[in-house]
Amino acid sequence: MLRYSGAPREERERERQVAKVRVYELAKELGVPSKDVMIRIQEMGEFARSASSTIEAPVVRKLKKSFEDERAQTSAGAARPPSTPPASTLSPGAPRPDPARLPDRVHDGRGRRALSLSIASFGGSTDSELELHTPLPLPFATVRAQALGQALTSFGYHWPKPLPSDRPAEMLGREVDGAISAADRDEVLVVHILSHGHLAESGAVYVMGSDGRTHALTDVEHWLKTVEDFPDRPYTLFLLDLCHSGVAARLPWQVALADGSSRAWVIAACEPDEQAFAGRFSQAAANVLDRLYRGQLDIDRSVRYVPLATVAREIRREVDKLAAAARALPQQVTCSVIDISAQVDLPFFLNPGYLEDERNEVRGRIDTALAPFLDDLDDAFDARHFIGRLPGTARWLTVSVTAVSAAATMS
Questions:
Q1: Under a CB-based contact definition with an 8 Å cutoff, are residues 268 and 194 in contact?
Q2: Residue 338 and residue 312: Cα distance in Å, rounded?
């Protein structure tokens, strides 16, 4: 039996050629700048060398749908009345954070500083023609950095104001060096960078400045070593929204500090061989910190600091969620390596729901098997009286366990 195989090859090829359009032509049809189309192409994991490059029909369809969906969402949002912020999921008896600042009982007396540097355009790129050697602009950078900076202020960080995005590479490097050297050892510093990352032949990752260049001072490893190699440097968390930023969390010498003794910690937007897209990591970090501040994450009230591993996991989940919603290429958040047996209490994020009482104060001094009995003690019971006897002899230990158990039963 003969089967119809469709249009002849020549006709199909002609249709394929006709379906191709140039980036700037599609931008004109959509009514958006060419650079916006180039950025959207990059987010989709496609490639276009410049605004004069042609793109295939399937990509054109995806781009049109993406911009149409975005406009529909914008229109729907404008027509919808302002929504009420989500209610906190804190339990009724848990303390709720003040909308302006954390409660005084949460603070630990440390100074906290934040530096957020974002680069939106590079080397004089123009809308009419984006050549291969010209890095794509990042028009979302300033907004993303501002949202994250504001989220950090909720946790007591001093974030002066959004710095201008016009930061040549050398100036950018000096800004970070200056922030590290200005902070005292007892302070805490968060450094957030949103820009292009350049993977050098040596394997090092450099941050690109607004001049479209890198500099010896924008070597991320240089910043990490500046913190680690000098004892007067502060605990520093680097939030790196850069392509290839995972390199900074997988440096050979970091293995020796995996016991938790490190002072420089990294949460990076992607793995060493991956790209970072659309400032999604910065957006995710801001979203997670906002939820954390509002009490919408389940954090034990007895701990003063939110475990950094918890923050990192939540950011990774949020990045995955944002990528899925945008139908974009995934990127895997990568963090500093740590020995899973290490007990590390990092002071980067104060727990907004922290509640200090005698039971919480002594919880870390008892065996975990006794924790349930401690929780069941009546409020009128003197927990410190019983716990103070636990470090004693085996006889006292046995008596104390029996006493705590009995007290829990009576209550």
A1: no
A2: 13
Tell the burial category of 37 from Cβ atoms under 10 Å away from its Cβ (0-12, 13-18, 19+): buried
Domain 104-335 architecture: 3-Layer(aba) Sandwich (3.40)
- The answer, yes or no, to whether residue 131 has pLDDT greater than 50, is no
Residues in the chain: 411
> Could you report the per-residue pLDDT of 219-256, keeping only the tens digit for each?
999 999 999 999 899 999 999 999 999 999 999 999 99
Q: Beta-strand (E) ranges in 276-343?
A: 334-335
As a CATH number, domain 11-76 is 1.10.10.2480
| 43-70 mean pLDDT | 78
Angstrom distance (rounded) from CA 379 to CA 377:
6
Backbone angles phi, psi at 178, to 5 degrees: -65, -40
pLDDT, tens digit, 9 for 90 and up, residues 32-42: 887 778 777 77
The number of beta carbons lying within 10 Å of the beta carbon of residue 185 is 11
The domain spans of the chain are 11-76, 104-335, 358-410
Instruction: Report d(CA 214, CA 168) in Å as an integer.
Output: 8
What percentage of the chain has pLDDT greater than the value 90?
46
Beta carbons of 205 and 247 less than 8 angstroms apart:
yes
**Please, are residues 244 and 199 in contact by the beta-carbon 8 Å criterion?**
yes
